[in-house]
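Repro case for the chain-ordering regression, as requested:
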Amino acid sequence: MANRVRVFAPASASNLGPGFDVLGLALVSPGDIVEAELSQAPGVEIVEITGSQSLSKDPGINVVGVTASAILQQLNHHNSCGVRIWLHKQMPLASGLGSSAASSVGAAVAVNHLLGDPLSSKELIQYALEGEAVASGSRHADNVAPSLLGGIVLIRSYTPLDLVALPVPSALRIVVVHPHTAVETASARELVNKQRFSISQVVANLGNVAALVSALHSDDLNLFSRSIQDMLVEPIRAPLVPAFSKVKKAALAAGALGCSISGSGPSVFAFAESDTVATAVSDAIQKTFTSAGFNSDPYLGPINTKGAQILPPR
Amino acid sequence: MANRVRVFAPASASNLGPGFDVLGLALVSPGDIVEAELSQAPGVEIVEITGSQSLSKDPGINVVGVTASAILQQLNHHNSCGVRIWLHKQMPLASGLGSSAASSVGAAVAVNHLLGDPLSSKELIQYALEGEAVASGSRHADNVAPSLLGGIVLIRSYTPLDLVALPVPSALRIVVVHPHTAVETASARELVNKQRFSISQVVANLGNVAALVSALHSDDLNLFSRSIQDMLVEPIRAPLVPAFSKVKKAALAAGALGCSISGSGPSVFAFAESDTVATAVSDAIQKTFTSAGFNSDPYLGPINTKGAQILPPR
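-- result from build under test --
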């Protein structure tokens, strides 16, 4: 067993248009780094947090503490050891990039590794969800699962947790642009929870999410493009994103295969079929945010098919 | 151009659990037979209907007349000819078997053939939907499309019509059992139209329909089985099917991969992974209907991958 470990856990984009709470994918960057070491003092200590001023070092509140404590309690019955954690935030909070999920996943993978890797990926997801629930107010796996596993992940069911790894077309590129404003995940979710949906809205998303999955399996980026449509949640959350309708129009005009809100926003995502188009789309989105008075950060590249990774010792 | 043609158009099962209005598949049997010939008198004449006492021979009311008239008006601008039709109903009405869709499709394929096959499959579906709308009160392609094309069809979008042919696992068997009672499609639809759905119901179906499509592409009957679940419409329509909860329990106990309501009922469908299991499931369902006081007819076999077929001349 290692005494110290460093884990990279990637950011993720969830929903992907029609797949509210059931689809997510991992980005190559950004991602959080969680360092952890075994200690003789029982319990979890968060030694340091870099990259964020606002996060608590209280292990009962911070997602890395909650996740690490849950695993430790499960595996270390005799309280014979504890864990010390350093969290290096490398992405904005409340951004729609799966920031809390990445921290949770990093902590889960790190603590599991320190204890000899006894837990399966599926078990790690369950523990990471406990951390994620602290941040978002509910247990949603559409960021946690892709951050851990990589690729494009479908959550068929939450009870029991049933995950499907979907094929990733090799040409596919993802663009996520984060405008400098924040959306609280819990309140964005409340907007959706209180809504009731007509059957025609539901049918539109059923058809599109089914077609999106078929398109991934058959490497059909044309069908994939037609499927990136959301009649359910995008209309509710669009007001949370600065100039969203203009941003979407600009992305599509620049050649995007589709564009919608990443998670609960304010980040938007778009798909492209090459690096060149991805760059043009990213530029068009940033320009539109700038015109609306918002600076922004772009993240673009292929889909991250590796997920969370243990980094070599420094 | 042929002067006379006979067309077989198969029955179909729609929704398939999670895919309300977006999924349907064709059965090997039963199916309607539409015979048609060119005539010198303009317009459409329905000469004879066998197999049903209740259907009107008025071509403005009967689905075959509506579909045939729509095609004729489009293609035969000079009113230089007409069409005479014989409709042989070989399946019950208001059964959940796509009876009106089969008649519409049979008429569309027959009239198109008499006129030299100028229309594409997609155009034929549009015309058949006009007939279908007469019977069901709305244009829904989840019976028409599989009856015409065969196989398992996904309707990504209605406007514009966008269809995806899904892979059919070779081991898959479908069982449809029709209890001797009727459900009016239009009133069954009204039950759904007036309903509003919570996001948790919607998410459950999004996950299942996406997983069902992934399972078909990866030939994974285990995942397929877990995906045949409907939180949206089955709870609303179950009271329209005699002893539905017992029927479903019996089907699953006999080894069905899944069981739900076919279209708007009262027929139920189940999937099986072999002919032997399909027979056991069919028997179990029929026995349960009998106990509830209903005779029934079973239809079981592989998925019909051919769709509507022009039959050899007699």
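Ordering looks correct now. DSSP finds ten helices and eleven strands in chain A.
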